[in-house]
Amino acid sequence: MKFFKNISGLEKIRESFSTRHVKYGGYAALISLGVLIALLMLNLLIGQFPMQLDLTRNQIFSLSDQTLEILDQLDSPIKFYGLWTPGTENPVVMDTISQYLSRSRHITLDILDPDRNPGFTMRYDRERRGISQGSIIVEGDMGFRLITPFEMFDFFNMGDLSVTDVMVERRISNAILFVGTGTTPVIYELTGHGQTSLSFFGIYEYLDRENYDMRQINLMLSDIPDDATVIVIYGPQRDLAPMEADKLLEYLDNGGRLMVFADYNIRELTNLNRVLASFGIAYNYGIVHERDPSYFTMMDSSVVLPDVIEHDITNALLNKERTPIMFITAMSISELPTRRRQTEVIPLLHSSSGAFLRSDLNITAADVIGGDTLGPHIYAVAVEDPGTGWINPMDPEPQTRIVAFGDANILMTALRLGIPANMDLFMNSLTWLHDRQETGSVRSRSHIVGPMHLTMTNVITYGVLFIGVIPIAFFVSGFVVWLKRRHL
């Protein structure tokens, strides 16, 4: 020990550890080590919980409130079969399915290689056309639904195929509803009035994927079937016959449901308006034009962007970031002063106060002239009327419901011009008419970023803010700093 004490170098090293710099450095090192250990422990702890934050604009990787409601009410087993070769699973689809699995203990998932299990897949191949890899089979007590890869996404083809909308949740949630109930609502399209059939727009196949059965009916040849859940009148070019109007009134008096899309090309809608007038609404002949540039597009005052009013049908469309609804050559709808005592008329879409309805279509003047009717004008309404007769087992109070639109180009605009909000409006109206509120907002998640819809007030506000207030604030702050430094 004496030997070590006589070594001056060791003595100097020992003394260096008692200096202030070494002590502070040691404390800092210990604190840093403690923080590092704490962060590692926190990271390990958080990793035990399935936490994620969806920062996408349309919440593509989150389940909607309507789907969560479906899953919370689910009380029977549902089996998902994913048909993938191992390692080829679609990450978007798998992420969505994992959210279903974590939310409900009644749902399970099996991944199967279709090439190695041909006998299994044949059980679900009704048309013997083969089942594509990447498909999902949703099976429950009341049946099954097959969802192919191309039904989970919308595509846009301009040389290269690109995804525009994600529809995984929408397809799976509708499949769960079907396999849980085994029922398919039947919708009848009224024919015999020179209109373009909805089959022309591909709506029959579209609704089949949404768990609806679409059929046609001519009221001049038959009565309304008992299984009719909704009657659709889309763009008639001729008015209803008196006998057809009487059948519709009887159907509605017994709690029926009706969706109407009127076309400005027909001037007289005497019998159709007679049916609607019984519930407090009527179509006004003519075309609505907007004068506020923020309410129309394509440099055409008759291609309008309506304001949306809060309702079960439109709640999912109130998101200002989504593509706005677009109407082309729309008529207006009036609320009549006389109606049934319990009838409630709820406007869904309306114009700006500067809009006008022009009934003389030969006049091309851009501004208001004599004979034009000033706005605001209503483009769409929902009607509710408690009645007697047909009773929905899910809703003990029988109720007549009508949704009326002043535009018969809604589906054409949705499919040909790529306006997804129009299709959402159509589907949300259908689900509301059929009392399927739980899926009214389970719509596709768009990848397309549309233009911002600004009113004139927004334009003025943002203009003043970014052109006036912010630059002046920078100038004043810079001037103040300059004055202070000038006197230093």
The portion of residues forming beta strands comes to: 15-25%
Helix vs. strand class: alpha+beta
CA radius of gyration: 32 Å
The percent of residues in helical segments reads 25-40%
Largest sheet: number of strands, sense, barrel closure:
8 strands, mixed
Query: In CATH terms, what is the architecture of the largest domain?
Result: 3-Layer(aba) Sandwich
Based on CA inertia axes, which overall geometry fits? flat
Helix and strand topology:
Layout: H1 2-5, H2 8-16, H3 20-46, H4 65-73, E1 78-83, H5 91-103, E2 107-112, H6 118-122, E3 136-140, E4 143-147, E5 153-158, E6 160-166, H7 168-181, E7 186-190, H8 203-209, E8 213-217, E9 228-234, H9 242-253, E10 257-261, H10 270-277, E11 281-284, E12 287-289, E13 296-297, E14 300-304, E15 307-308, E16 327-328, E17 332-335, E18 344-350, E19 356-358, E20 373-374, E21 378-386, E22 399-405, H11 410-416, H12 420-433, E23 445-446, H13 456-486
Parallel strand pairs: 1-2, 7-8, 7-9, 9-10, 10-22
Antiparallel strand pairs: 1-3, 3-4, 5-6, 6-23, 11-17, 12-19, 13-14, 14-16, 15-18, 18-21, 19-20, 21-22
Helix pairs in contact: 9-10, 11-12
Quick take:
The protein is α+β, with helices and mostly antiparallel strands.
Task: Describe, in plain words, how this protein is organized in 3D.
With about 500 residues, the protein is of the alpha+beta class. It has 4 domains: about 1-45, no CATH class; about 55-185, Glutaredoxin (3-Layer(aba) Sandwich), CATH 3.40.30.10; about 230-445, Rossmann fold (3-Layer(aba) Sandwich), CATH 3.40.50; about 455-488. About 35% of the residues lie in helices and about 20% in strands. The chain is built from 13 helices and 23 strands. It has helices at about 1-5, 10-15, 20-45, 65-75, 90-105, 120, 170-180, 205-210, 240-255, 270-275, 410-415, 420-435, 455-485, and strands at about 80-85, 105-110, 135-140, 145, 155-160, 160-165, 185-190, 215, 230-235, 255-260, 280-285, 285-290, 295, 300-305, 305-310, 325-330, 330-335, 345-350, 355-360, 375, 380-385, 400-405, 445. The strands form 6 sheets. The protein has an 8-stranded mixed β-sheet, with helices on both faces. The protein has a 4-stranded mixed β-sheet with strand order 2-1-3-4, covered by helices on one side. The protein starts with a helix and ends with a helix.
